[in-house]
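Supplementary Note 3. Input sequence used for the single-chain structure prediction.
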Amino acid sequence: MLSYIWPMALLVLSNTVYQVCAKSVPERMNPFASLTVTYLVGAAVSMLLYFVLGSGGSLLKEYVKLNWAPFVLGFVIVGLEVGWIYAYQAGWQVSTAFIVQSAFLAVSLLAVGYLIFHETLSWNKIVGVIICMVGLAVINMK
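The predicted structure, written as C-alpha cells, is reproduced below.
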C-alpha cells in the first residue's frame, strides 16, 4: 500500500513547492535564464540520486537504453516550466491556475488514454470530466 501512496504524496508535495517557485521567479528575469539554473540543479540532483539510490551501474550503460522519450520529455518540460512562469507573470493566481490547467489536462489525457493506450472510457470518467468543467465555471465566476 505504501508503494502506491508515497509517489502520489511526493507528487503533491513537489507540485506545491513547484508552483510556489514558478510564481516566485523574478518578473524581470528572463524565464529561460531561470530555467538554465533549474536544469543544472536538476541534472546534478538526478546524477547524485542515481549513484545514491541506483544499483551501482554505469550511467553510460544506462544511456545505451535510451529511446525517443527522454529527448522529447526534455522539450516538453521546458514548455511546462516556461508556460507556468509566463502564466503567473500574466496574472494567473496560484489558487486557480493549476485547477484550470488540471481540468483541461484531464480531458486531454482521457482522450490520449483512450486513443493511444486503449484505456477504457467509462461513464464515471465522462461524468468526472463534466464535473470538472462545471467546477471551472464555478471557480471563474465573479
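The radius of gyration is 18 Å. The chain is about 80% helix and 0% strand.
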